[in-house]
Every structure is written in structure tokens, then in C-alpha cells.
Design a protein that fits this description.
The chain is mainly α. The chain has one domain (about 1-105). The protein is built from four helices and no strands. It has helices spanning about 1-25, 30-50, 55-75, 85-105. The relative contact order is 0.16.
Length: about 110
Amino acid sequence: MNWLLLVFAGLLEVVWAIGLKYTDGFSKPVPSVITVAAMVASFYFLSIAMRTIPLSIAYTVWVGIGMVGAVIVGVFVFKETLSMVKAISLLLIIAGIVGLKLSSVS
């Protein structure tokens, strides 16, 4: 269950990262509220997951999900370029997340 909460926390990290792009320096109220709410929820679910998942694994997986998600959204929504080096790097991050999950007893 805590692994599901960790994945959800990582997805919420993607939401708030995207939200930051729309806040215009927190000058737009609706995107700002959504961004802050996603931040708070993301940290909350991360903290719950860390009850049983070690810090070194939980935090790294959380950040990894956020990085991969932000790049995917950047490429598909914001039309950012996806070079071969960027694609290979994403695959390495995903492999690292899977490896950390497999190394965990929780």
C-alpha cells in the first residue's frame, strides 16, 4: 500500500511542477492554489509512504517519478525536444526506480 502512496506522491509532484509553469510567479490565483495543494498532498503522501519505505529509496523514487513525468509532459504538452541522450537518460532513471523497488523488502 505504501508503494502505491509513493507513486501517487510522485505523480502529484508532476502536477505541481506543471502547475508552477502556469502560476506566472504565483500571480495567477487558480493555478497557484492547485500547485500549492498538489505540493502539500505530494509531501503528505510521501511522508506516509516513508513510514515503512526507507528514506534513501522513498525520496529517490519520488524524485525519479517527478523527473520522468516532467520530461514526458514537457515533450508531449509543451513540445520540448526529446534527444536520444534525453531518452536514454530517462530509461536509466526508470531502470533505477525499478531497481530500487526490487531491492526493497517493503
